[in-house]
Amino acid sequence: MILKEILTKLVKNKMPVILFNSRGDWTAEDILKNLSESKLKTRSHYQPGLYIAEINESGYLGSVLYRIKKGK
């Protein structure tokens, strides 16, 4: 799965989450609108309630792209 698919699913299902990292807090919709297509194609794993992490070339979890916190 790629980051764009994860974010699209969060938006489509109206999941009340805020995604955050060291740069700030965002909604999934904000990230979809503002992130480059190349970044949105990053292979990723969504762990509900915890994080969205990159999947590295070896197929293992890499760095955490966004942590999850409950939204409104």
Rg of Cα set: 11 Å
Q: Give the helix proportion (percent range).
A: 25-40%
Proportion in β-strands: 35-45%
Average pLDDT taken over every residue: 94
Major sheet strand order: 2-1-5-4-3
What's the end-to-end separation, in Å? Answer: 26 Å
Structure description:
The chain has 72 residues and is of the alpha+beta class. 29% of the residues lie in helices and 38% in strands. The protein has one domain. The chain contains 3 helices and 5 strands, in the order αββααβββ. A 5-stranded antiparallel β-sheet has the order 2-1-5-4-3. The longest helix is centred in the first third of the chain and has 10 residues, at 3-12. It is globular.
Write the layout of secondary structure elements.
Blueprint: H1 3-12, E1 17-21, E2 24-26, H2 28-34, H3 37-40, E3 44-47, E4 51-55, E5 61-70
Antiparallel strand pairs: 1-2, 1-5, 3-4, 4-5
Q: Nutshell version of this structure?
A:
With 72 residues, the protein is an alpha+beta fold. It is built from three helices and five strands, in the order H-E-E-H-H-E-E-E. Strand 1 and strand 2 form a beta hairpin.
Main features:
globular, alpha+beta, five-stranded antiparallel β-sheet
